[in-house]
Design goal:
This protein has about 200 residues and is of the alpha+beta class. It is built from five helices and eleven strands, in the order H-E-E-E-H-E-E-H-H-E-E-E-E-E-E-H. This is IseA DL-endopeptidase inhibitor.
Amino acid sequence: MNKKWMIGSLALSIGLISVSGGAMAASPSAGSTEIKKVAVSAPGKEGPATINNLTVKSIIPLVVHARALYFYSNRGGNIFPIETFTYKAQEYRYLSSDLGTKTKLMNYIKKAYTHNAAAYYVQTQFLEHNGRMSQVNADVGNLLMYEKATARMLSKTATTAEFELTVPYPEAQGSSESVYVKLKKVEGYWRIDMSPDILF
């Protein structure tokens, strides 16, 4: 048998053939030679949560991603209709079910933050009530445009980094603000090592 055919047959028998940036998988049904396309992410397209080479350019998408996680959790997730209760004379709202337990909330925040940063945020900004996570029924935020920020590296080692961002306001809202960002490498990927409510 020709070597090319033998290699092709081997690839088909194990069920995977690489084709133009994607992959093809052989159908598991016996005797079938049907091929199905399988989703494979291209290198560099993994998203901001999988940055392993931190630079003045790559930090911006990570911070924008971290801000989106913060805003979503800070507004309580998908909270409509809002379910409220009163605790110590203050109105609280329950978080949506996708963030509704401490474990779910921590896992969500840790998509861009270190464990310690997420734990501090959850401990100081949320209340576990009747087995569900809740927060004070109020919204906070700012208008800073992190997607248009520029970064300056202050320090970097193999596992820690510090940056200063210059973050503009929308036109006619002011000029810009300087924002300090501390990061740590966790399991090969960079995470923000400060609580979201302190950063944003």
